[in-house]
Amino acid sequence: MERDLPVLLERILPQLALPSDRMAQVRRRIQQRKRRRRAAAAASVLAVGCAVVATVLSPAAFGPEEHRAVPAAAPTGDPGFAQVRLEDPLDGVTVYLPTTWHTLSVRDDHGAAAGFVSSQTLHVPGDGTCPSVTDAVLTACPPLTGLNQKGVLITFLSGDANSTDDAGSLARGVPVSADGNCRAVGGDRQMTGWAHGRAPGSAGGPDMKIDVCLKEPSQLTLVTVAKVLTLLRVSADQG
Amino acid sequence: MNGAEADFEEFVSARGQRLLKVAWLLTGDAHLAEDLLQTVLAKVWPKWGSIADGNPEAYVRKALVNTHLSWWQRRWRGEVPHAHDRLATLAGPGARAVDDFVSVDLEQSLSDVVRLLPPRQRAVVVLRYFEDLSVEETARVLGCRPGTVRSHTLKALATLRARLASAPGPVESGERHAQRA
Fold first, then answer.
1. Most A CBs within 10 Å: which of B1, B2, B36, B38, as the mutation test of the A interface?
2. Which terminus of chain B is more exposed, N or C, with fewer CB under 10 A?
3. Which residue of A has its CA nearest to B127?
């Protein structure tokens, strides 16, 4: 059947109409998008009261770039939080972080990518590429030398979803003893969950694994982590 | 109209129907497919200057897949096969007559089963077998690891085989009436 599938897929296609005004409709949509973006930009300036905008991380063309979160309009109105968008191919993921936190994205040669956010400065040694972006990415290319007390390192990794947990339930979770991957960066507690967008547990939902690695977390640390995970968003602007 | 606009319009004219087929295989609905295609073309236009010299069709195809997956995430669109689309399919060349006891052939079974696949498995099937992408190319489009693509492929093929094996064979509706009697 696998051999015949290409032909069968062609044959099940119906006669699909070619709208004579397709380009006109596309041009209308382009104008609508421009108007919506102008309106959104104007609204954020009014809300904050000064000229601050959300930053979008630039593509890591020559290696991963470490970024500080920049103050911007956050959904909670908390001036201590900022909006950051992870890099392609995780660029559909928007996180709201404390303004003192840092982000970093890495890829391996196969195009797999991991996004990191942390309370500490991040870096990847060598030429900036990661030898292998898998579940053990913290062992293969640790983005920091060691977590400080109350330190936080969150890893976003695309992969198969094998749990019905979502980022929301992860935010309510209780940290457990760290595995080898988390211990590799000096962590002693961890939480793991999956982001399923807005349809937790639904088949075929977005596959985003989230690993939270902690060291001697205080209650304030856990509250902050819970807030970051609760505010996590997956946008429609992927691809 | 400037050069970039003319170039973009020419691309849409030349490749639009092929991309619409990809969109239909992803969504299973002709109206949704056109909606998805136009949405993606509008998103791609601002970046046309940087992608036109490369492989714009690959870029648009990747955007089709990922936009469709994000629509599914937001549950803006239902995944129920529309009856009118099924009828439109059956009304094509070589189709059987439709009545309450629709005769099923392999192509119709496959069409139904493909629509029942979870969105990411469906995307993998479309990319690998309709667009003829390799495992690695498919992984890059979906932003996942090659192992994940292979896993989705195995699951999708297993579902297709199981469903198609259990589907009734090509039976004329008249015969089925007689058996029920």
1. B38
2. C
3. A6
